[in-house]
Design goal:
This protein has a single domain, classed as di-copper center containing domain from catechol oxidase. Helix 1 crosses helix 3. A hairpin with a 3-residue loop joins strand 4 and strand 5. Strands 1-6 form a two-stranded parallel sheet. A two-stranded antiparallel ribbon has the order 2-3. A two-stranded antiparallel ribbon has the order 4-5. By secondary structure, the chain is mainly alpha-helical. It is globular, with a radius of gyration of 19 Å.
Length: 375
Amino acid sequence: MRNASWESYALVGCVTMRASILCLSVPLAITSGVLGRPASRQPAEKCETPLIRREWCVSVDGKQDFISAVKCLQSRPGNTSDTFSGVKSRYDDFLALHITKTDYVHWVGHFLPWHRYYLWKFEQALRKECSYGGSLPYWGWAQDSDNETSILKSPIFHPDTGFGGNGPYIEDVSYFPEEWQTGIDIPGRSGGGCIADGPFAGSNISMGPGNHTEYNPHCLRRDMSPWLMTQSLNKSTVEFILNSTDYFELDHRIEGLELGLSGISIHVGGHLGIGGKIGEMSNTYSSPADPIFWLHHCAIDRLWDTWQRKDWQKRKVDIGGPDTQWAYPYDYYGELPYENVTLDFVMNFGKVAPEVKIREVMDIHDAPFCIAYTS
């Protein structure tokens, strides 16, 4: 099987589907009242007071709490170091899981469900092990992406109340190991060095880049392309995704409809827009090493939830797409045998969590999540 890489995907016209078939605020307050949704599958665990996930830019309150909780996980001993020599912290448990599952959870039908549960388990670790009183924030990219100036001024990159900005510019990155580099050239890339400011400057990443879980301490690099972020994270892209008629099309539009720079959509656009040619966010395997990963993927999960709520009775059970990476509709390297995922498809989370069926993660308002997103 071909290894995954952010070689880009499309924001072009729809294709015909052969199978049935998108600024943390307060400490993400608990709200009262029952959300408008169908009864829980498990009435005894019915969600009455959902935890609210908010956009990073809404308020300055709670941002330091989230960053401190992430640092707390980075300082606590890991649970999977007996399996992965590079695991040195609880944060590394989640990094190792993503590295080892990358080839099974990208460019497949269960991309969105798997990452939804992955985000929730990380959120639970922050809350239960690091006394974090909030929930995962999301990055509302569309409000920042009107132009290159506005994207660079996004609160998410603020050195004091955000995650810091770019690394120093390195013009020639050809001497870096091949597996560190994105497979395509990134127009407008402006960094490449270790990040110079923000709460994670000077910290070491334990594993990666690439499909490696042995101990390999290295700095966090960013190689931002403001141009790419404005092209792929804008309101038009969000609207294009939300106009999908079924899940199969939604997942395809989020991941991308074709290879090449012209095919970059929201998922890959966030990764490559921040990671560029050699930044950690651009590495398919080890991208969670950059804490911005969680906000980007939280926004993608919110996009899926928003799409679901537009026609809830139908979309609460709408799922599809290949169970095999690089199979149709992502058969850019040739046809591969596959089956469509169903609600009973079982997702694996290694030692981080027990196996979970897709049907168990379709409603983020319901147990076990009990979460809602702000608009």
